[in-house]
Specification:
Layout (H helix, E strand, L loop, with lengths): L1 H25 L2 H27 L2
Helix pairs in contact: 1-2
Length: 57
């Protein structure tokens, strides 16, 4: 299941970054903020998964 969570993290980061950049380009600040939040959630998920991998014996 950890591989699935890592994939989710990567997808969230990529989609969030794309949404943020496109929204900024067309001037939608609210959507850009949502994209940034999605990207941050993906980064947090990635950090969590890395921590779980370090704790495995």
């Amino acid at each position: 299941m950890s591989a699935r969570e890592k994939a989710k993290a990567t997808v969230e980061q990529v989609v969030g970054r794309a949404v943020r950049r496109i929204a900024l380009a067309i001037g939608h600040r609210t959507t850009a903020a949502k994209g940034a939040a999605l990207e941050a959630r993906g980064k947090a998920r990635r950090i969590k998964e890395k921590g779980k991998d370090k704790l495995k014996f």
